[in-house]
Amino acid sequence: MRIKRIILLYFFVFIVVTVINPTVSSTYSQSQEEITQYIIDVSKDIYRSIPKPDPSILYSSKGEVRLKLFLSPWGELKDVYISESSDNRELDNLCLNTVWMYKRYQPFPEALGSEDLWIDVPIIFDIDSSRIHSNNMSRAKSRDILRASPSTSLGINSASREVTNLGINDAVDIALENHMAAKIAQEEIELAKLKIREARRGLYPAATLNYLETTGKTAGTTQDFTDKEYKLKFEYPLYYGWRLKYAVEQAMSNLKASTSNYDKTLQDLRAEVESAFYAYMASKMDVKLHKALLEETSNVFTGAKKRLELGLITRAEFLQLESQMQQINYQVISSENTLAMAKLTLAQAVNAKGGEKAIEIIDKEPGKDLEPIVVNVTLEECTDLAFRSRPDLKAKGYMLEFNDYERKITESKNQLRVDLTGTYGKSGGAYQTEHLDMGNDWYLGLKVTKPLGGNTLSTTFTKDKTSQKHGQTTRTESVSKSIEYGLLDGLQHFSEEKSAEIGYKKAKDELEQAKDSIVREVKESYLNYKKGLIQIMTNLNKIKYREEEFKIIKARAELNDVSLSELIQAYMSLTDEKAYYVEALGSLYQSLAKLNKATGYALFLDDESFKLANTK
Description:
By secondary structure, the protein is α+β, with helices and mostly antiparallel strands.
């Protein structure tokens, strides 16, 4: 009965300690407010993208559609279906089609964790008015500044201003499939998860099963004997000064840092691909412009040959035309070479072995060119987005937590430590001529350890009871008490404590440096974007001037009032201005991509006109 009481006492102590020292981290308690706000934001993003439905559709519906979105923590849309219909199929399909327009939505808040989830998103319409948010017109007005420009006059196919799929997502997807750094970062996440499991295991008792059988011979005429025993052995850390709990929290911080580093790797890759992609698109537009110039001027040059044969123009005039055509041919070859290098850079950026095949996938929708984009956002808003969304900043913050827990773990090693150990099983022994009877066997011990400076004081209390063995007539029961004082056996604690403090200060300094770097990066990319807008407007004005000049010279050339070389020069001047515009346009898109990356790829979620990384 006493054995049963001791075992029951052990389990009682285990339950009490587990309740006092909970193993579930408080960091995983979900914030209902954050989750609610996230769902509201996603709902608003979808609602703003829905084309204005006909009033008759709204009147014949409930005015509300509930969607189930299957999203990754990074915001990638994997699946969607209607969980509650609006009782109008047209409105339901309109919402579904709008959701599938974009492959990426807002990243999860920390409260939602790091696993793919089904998110219930309501879309609510105001039946009394066609739209809830009428203030979107202010953004449309700002975008009209550049839309009013005669982009069709640049020889660019832009009859429709609808958002078009330029293939940027295809390029990024191909790059992700072949990016070794992303795969390594993913493996680091798996390693961090194993570290969490390892740290949590330390909170629970360690148990082992033992079986021992001994056979032997005794001296003299005494008979041979056999001893057998099997037992369950356990060790449980009753109190380690919260060190074990800190170890779990530290492992969780490491997982968060690894996840953020993975996100940073993806964003760095995306930024590299985007920059190469927009340089490639601009180069394609430039080649198109110069080939169009060559085609137009070739007709003029052919006519000039006939005029020379008829003696209508001088030899000097013809040589001038010939020199201009050679210059145009040189420009075409130069732009084609630039395009070839841009294609190579893009193929290398996507990390694809078959780079040409990757370019073919990206070029699956030819005839779509870049157009100017105006984003209504301030520098302060960009900076705020960056501080909230940059994964590298989050990673530095989590590493600061990691080192803070390391410091706490080191400090807790100087506190009292209590260990509970014990065994329970059966054992017995008998001579060869005797019957072997197995009896209960148990042991229970309590060890208390306290570091004192560089020394260690420990005391142990044990109680055990064993079954009778061969040569014994009774069971053996004993109680032991001991005190041990280790001399200078804990000097490493001082170096560990100092190392932890240095690590914490380094992590704190790296966090501050990351903040300063982000502020500088955001401001630089924002100012480059604004400078690009001004350059675009300047180029458009110059193009208008060159177009008017070209019309006048062309009309005069038809009246033989100007030479053909002047006409070709007007062609070349107009094309040069268009080429400068294309170059500025490519730089503008690259600046936007850098600004989007600088804000943690959260910018396109805050303005419906800017979806560089997710256009369709």
